[in-house]
Automatic annotation (TrEMBL):
Organism encoding this protein: Plantactinospora mayteni
Keywords linked to the UniProt accession: ATP-binding, Cell cycle, Cell division, Nucleotide-binding
InterPro entries in alphabetical order: FtsK/SpoIIIE/SftA, FtsK_dom, P-loop_NTPase
PROSITE patterns: FTSK
Domain of life: Bacteria
Alphabetical list of Pfam families matching this protein: FtsK_SpoIIIE
Regions of compositional bias (Basic and acidic residues) in chain numbering: 525-536
Protein name: Hypothetical cell division FtsK/SpoIIIE protein
Region (Disordered): 497-536
Entry's Gene Ontology BP terms: cell division
């Protein structure tokens, strides 16, 4: 130990142990060798590929390597041409993911985690979340991250935007569970693939998934989807998702609320829905009852598709809603005891009441009597209509409770661009903005882009609705008009209701005594026990 004096300070430096050179060099070689072996064990695919390429080079020289590469590229091109989705899943996705993990994310991982406040201190050491794997597809990178002990997915969700920008992206989302559903397996090897899926999609509470949007698939306008001849009410194609798949709306037995500031594309959501229902409108499986308080500006063009249409008089709009309630009541009386959820058929079609700018009916209407009447019918439809196939799909700009008192009665919500951060949670539900639905930060180009909550996951997904041009609407109205008797659904209201079933009388016991406690009865009637009191 060496002691030196620096002014008043005493500096104590331990004496350094000096090893001879003949011991240092083999020691270093041993250490590096062990590290190389450990790396090979941890990366068996990369090791095996390198060994294989070396073997080809040793046996066949450069020509062998080039022929091999050309062969692999050819097979890959044919694979992509014949079946692009499996090519992405099994070849391009893992390769690109590996490449981006090594050359993009690992390079700046420590810096990004520290600056996004996700690094923790333990035992005088910095502990970082661990990047386990990266999977890429044409649009997204999905990073699987092991959290530091003591962290929760909310810690990551709070800094979602910071993470996106830290990795040079505009959009990111954090999922606490695997962001994809396990695929449906069919065929001979389905049992084996299902077993593999059970491992791949197992619940991993110590892991979060960070999805970074590499190529924003929603930047370009989405063309209209094919109109299904028979609409599947549990999966209506309305929008494109960030991973280029189609977002499908589950409409059966639900009401839908679309919130969005002015000129953000609420019309495209409603028209995408009308289009998806087109086949059903023409075949009589669906009846569209449309209310357009803007005097027909939005919907008049599609008039032939609508069984009922009210756009000028608020009286007529209130009548339309009252009639929807009458249809609902008739169905309730007829179906009670037979089924619990109505199944649409041509005889008993699905009635979809589409309301553009709902606030005009619930808040801005000056006639207080009429407003009350409308509120009464809407409340009834929203609380009881879904199960009997009378659904409400409504759009509005301002989601405050004063404007729309029955906001909570809409099970399905869609948020397009909004003006204030607080409105996001009002439309999508508490905490949605924290979980990544930044609907108040939508850029100007993002018309028809919105956030939806997917079935089964609390995290919102970003989608862009198809854009239906005026020409497209005219063509649709000509191709899928409602049947001539479409407005006649109310004729059904006179149908007989089921008879009351005969019930056996319940054997009733004679009342054995008063229902109030004795102490209270005595207080009320002090003479109570005087003559007929307890028998000895
Ligand atoms: N899905 C979309 N894709 C591309 N552009 C769109 C989309 N939806 C709307 N737009 C564009 O945005 C403009 C406004 O759309 P739209 O009228 O549907 O908005 P809105 O929210 O219904 O407006 P308002 O509040 O006036 O009812 C349209 O003229 C159209 O050019």
């Amino acid at each position: 130990m060496v002691l030196t004096s620096a002014g008043d300070l005493m500096v104590i430096r331990p004496k350094r142990l000096e090893l001879p050179l003949w011991l240092v060099i083999p020691g270093l070689l041993l250490r590096w060798g062990w590290r190389a072996v450990w790396w090979c064990l941890r990366h068996p695919v990369a090791t095996a590929s390198t060994v294989f390429l070396l073997a080809v080079y040793v046996d066949h020289g450069w020509q062998g390597l080039v022929s091999l590469l050309v062969g692999v590229a050819g097979v890959s091109a044919v694979w992509r041409w014949r079946h692009e989705s499996s090519w992405w899943t099994w070849l391009a996705g893992p390769l690109l993911g590996w490449f981006r993990r090594v050359f993009v994310y690992r390079r700046i991982w420590r810096e990004a985690m520290t600056l996004c406040r996700l690094a923790a201190k333990y035992d005088h050491q910095t502990v970082l979340p661990r990047l386990l794997s990266v999977r890429s597809d044409p649009a997204l990178d999905v990073l699987t991250i092991r959290m530091v002990r003591g962290q929760t997915p909310e810690d990551f969700q709070r800094v979602t935007a910071n993470l996106a920008y830290a990795f040079g992206r505009r959009h990111a989302r954090v999922y606490s569970e695997h962001p994809d559903d396990p695929p449906t397996r069919v065929g001979r090897w389905a049992w084996l693939l299902r077993l593999v899926d059970r491992v791949r999609f197992r619940d991993r509470p110590s892991v979060v998934y960070l999805v970074l949007v590499r190529t924003d698939a929603l930047r370009t306008t989405v063309p209209p989807f094919e109109v299904p001849a028979v609409p599947d009410f549990t999966a209506l194609p309305l929008a494109r998702r960030e991973d280029l798949t189609t977002w499908r709306l589950h409409l059966l037995a639900t009401h839908v609320l679309v919130g969005g500031a002015t000129r953000r594309g609420k019309g495209s959501v409603l028209w995408s829905l009308v289009r998806a229902l087109g086949g059903g409108v023409a075949s009589g499986l669906v009846r569209l009852w449309v209310i357009d308080p803007k005097g027909g500006m939005e919907f008049a063009m599609g008039r032939p598709m609508f069984a009922r249409f009210a756009c000028k008089s608020f009286e007529a709009m209130a009548d339309l809603l009252d009639e929807a309630v009458a249809v609902m009541r008739e169905r309730q009386a007829r179906l009670a005891g037979a089924v619990r959820v109505h199944t649409p058929s041509v005889a008993d079609p699905l009635v979809v009441v589409v309301i553009d700018e709902m606030a005009a009916l619930t808040a801005y209407l000056q006639d207080a009597e009429l407003r009350k009447r409308i509120a009464g019918s809407l409340g009834l439809l929203l609380s009881q209509g879904a199960g009997v196939g009378v659904l409400v799909v409504a759009a509005l700009q301002d989601p405050r409770k004063e404007v729309l008192p029955f906001r909570d009665l809409f099970p399905t919500r869609i948020a397009l661009g909004l003006t204030e951060a607080s409105q996001v949670d009002m439309v999508l539900g508490d905490g949605a903005r924290n979980r990544g639905a930044l609907a108040d930060q939508m850029p100007r180009w993002a018309k028809g882009v919105g956030y939806v909550i997917l079935d089964g996951t609390p995290e919102p997904a970003r989608v862009r609705f198809s854009y239906i041009s005026d020409d497209e609407i005219r063509a649709m109205a000509a191709t899928y008009p409602a049947p001539v008797d479409a407005a006649d659904i109310l004729a059904q209201v006179g149908r007989e209701t089921a008879d009351e079933p005969a019930r056996p009388a319940l054997p009733r016991q004679r009342s054995s005594g008063p229902l109030l406690p004795d102490a209270l009865l005595n207080l009320l009637d002090p003479d109570r026990n005087r003559d007929g009191g307890e028998q000895a």
